[in-house]
Amino acid sequence: MAGNKKSFTRISEVLKRFKLDEDKYISHEFQKYGYGLAEELEDLKHKSLYIKLAKETPRNLLEAARNFVKDAKNVKSKPRLFMWKLKELKKLRETSKVK
């Protein structure tokens, strides 16, 4: 995990956003983020995928892909566009590391 910096959120910030009736099975911040991402992309069927991405993928890449989808107009499939953009961002990141 060398070079993979993950920023942590203060526990007080997480607790402020915690909704006891909705979040009773969420114990980590990345789970909350992944579930919120699945909701925003209207893809709750695959919420575990987004939670896994939130755990293993740098947050700046996820945020960039999320913002790309938010700014896009007339999108047929938000999840597909998100995954495509995330793939492109990862490729770009790898090519910039090689140079």
Explained architecture:
The chain is mainly alpha-helical and 99 residues long. It has one domain. The chain has helices spanning 11-17, 29-40, 47-56, 59-71, 78-98. α2 packs across α3 (47-56) and α4 (59-71) crosses α5 (78-98). The radius of gyration is 15 Å and the shape is globular. The chain starts with 10 loop residues before the first helix and ends with a helix.
Strand share of the residues?
under 5%
Average predicted confidence as pLDDT: 85
Give the SSE order as H and E letters.
HHHHH
Compute the number of strand runs: 0
Total helices: the number is 5
End-to-end separation in angstroms reads 20 Å
**What percentage of residues falls in helices of 4 or more residues?**
55-70%
Model regions low in confidence, pLDDT < 50 over at least 5 residues: none
Indicate the radius of gyration in whole angstroms: 15 Å
| Most strands sheet | none
Blueprint of the fold:
Layout: H1 11-17, H2 29-40, H3 47-56, H4 59-71, H5 78-98
Helix pairs in contact: 2-3, 4-5
What structural keywords apply?
99 residues; mainly alpha; 5 helices
Summarize the structure.
Helices cover 64% and strands 0% of the residues. The protein has 99 residues and is mainly α.
